[in-house]
Amino acid sequence: MKIVVVGAGKLGLAITEVLLGSGYDITLIDRDEATIQRVGSRYDILTVNANAKRVDVLSELEIWNYDLLIAATDKDERNMVICNFAKELGCPQVIARVRSPEHVEQLDFAMKAQKIDYIVNPDMACASEIYKYLTEKYTLKDGRFSAGDVSILEFNVNRMPALIDLQLKDLPRVLDNILIAAVSRNGKIIIPNGNTILQADDTLYVIGSNKRINEISNKVREQRVHSELSSVMIAGGGGTGYFLAKKLADFGVAVKLIEIDRDRCEWLSARLDGVLILHGDATDMNLLQDEDIADMDAFVAVTGFDEENLLLSLTAKQMNIKDVVAKVSRNSYASLMETLGVSMIINPVDMCASNILRHIQKDDIIIFSQIIQGQAEFIEVWAEEGMPLTEDTLLALDIPEGVLIAAIRRGKDMIIPKGSTQVEAGDRVIILSLLSAIPHLQSLIKH
């Protein structure tokens, strides 16, 4: 498949890296010459220094010979126009990044008018995941995902005290015939190994047969009480803050939203009913204390600056707020955020890159995908002849860090794999991958 990516910003580069891992033929277009030169020296792709909004540029590129164009510049209107022009010139499928709430409110009409096949919105995606976490406190529907005779269950380790302080290699003596695929600890998803020691308050994602998971579920599931969430403070009135505040207010939560730009505050006030909009600097301790930050059930830091979200998360944790959520776009900050003990760290760039990839693959080898806590993804794939995944035992394969082959469905059998297990063509394979590792995972399942 030949794909054009327009825009070499954080999202455009993340998309490029993910698609390269799948073996797609990528052309990257950006107007900034220095950026294009830097990217060209990093990736083995065709780079074009040009304005993709010009019809002559798309024509010279022969856009009609490509299968897909993805417009991921920082301007909504530019992305929509580029997609429209590409479609008019004969490109069969186009995807646009669109962030503005005004466009989102008339999304179906905009897609039809501009002939856009799929729209990705980082702010809305983040807001949806944060809302899901805060209101439900878990991300798998009813705490479970089932695929045939295989189920994944999420639960807090405190519900089964015998697991606390247990090293995973000793798991069979407490829980047999299951695999702990992932651990959520201090807001970060961890792909564990045999040396991992489970800690109090860890959230576990376990996988096994339906029968075995049912047995565990009956012991550990607890009734979820959604009404416990009554007050949330949001720092940052950008797209994510707006969409999240609207969802929480509709849910019946008392929301206080802090935004430093006065014009933006007026815009928010005109569109958010039942939300208290505060004009001020969210890093101002006097403001936070005046607005009773210590009494909040949750604090969400979604300003446009990772460093500010980092500082605000630390402040909220010092106030002993139970749930602290932070948006961080740089993976380099993830480990630092983990030390703060935040409840959830979400990266909009990784999430959107994964969403676009799954949209492209929806009629291909991907059977199912489920993002958990905005950081990792369970996917089920068909194993096909020629895939690197089928070429050797799991131990001998170069499985990237952050990727786990969690289960294999072979005919009527469900296999919890070991190092000596080899995936066969025709198997249905359930894989857990950190979103940051998706580009590397794709090299295993490309065909």
Explain the overall architecture.
This protein has 447 residues and is α/β, with parallel strands linked by helices. It is built from 15 helices and 22 strands. The chain has a six-stranded parallel sheet with strand order 3-2-1-4-5-6, sandwiched between helices. It has a six-stranded parallel sheet with strand order 14-13-12-15-16-17, with helices on both faces. A hairpin with a 3-residue loop joins strand 18 (366-372) and strand 19 (376-382). The mean pLDDT is 87.
Secondary structure elements and pairings:
Elements: E1 2-6, H1 10-21, E2 25-30, H2 33-42, E3 46-49, H3 55-60, E4 68-71, H4 76-88, E5 94-97, H5 101-104, H6 107-114, E6 118-120, H7 122-136, E7 144-147, E8 150-156, E9 178-185, E10 188-190, E11 203-209, H8 210-220, E12 231-235, H9 239-251, E13 254-259, H10 262-271, E14 275-279, H11 285-290, E15 298-301, H12 306-318, E16 323-327, H13 334-339, E17 344-346, H14 348-360, E18 366-372, E19 376-382, E20 403-410, E21 413-415, E22 428-434, H15 438-445
Parallel strand pairs: 1-2, 1-4, 2-3, 4-5, 5-6, 12-13, 12-15, 13-14, 15-16, 16-17
Antiparallel strand pairs: 7-8, 8-11, 9-10, 9-11, 18-19, 19-22, 20-21, 20-22
Helix pairs in contact: 1-14, 1-15, 7-9, 7-14
Summary, kept brief:
With 447 residues, this protein is of the alpha/beta class. 33% of the residues lie in helices and 26% in strands.
The CATH class label of the largest domain is Alpha Beta
What would you say the CATH architecture of the largest domain is? 2-Layer Sandwich
- Low-confidence segments, given as residue ranges, are none
Biggest sheet strand line-up: 3-2-1-4-5-6
**Residues in helices, as a percent range:** 25-40%
Tally of individual helices: 15
Instruction: Output mean pLDDT.
Output: 87
Strand content: 25-35%
Record field, number of beta strands: 22
- Determine the structural class based on helices, strands and strand pairing: alpha/beta
CATH fold description of the largest domain: Alpha-Beta Plaits
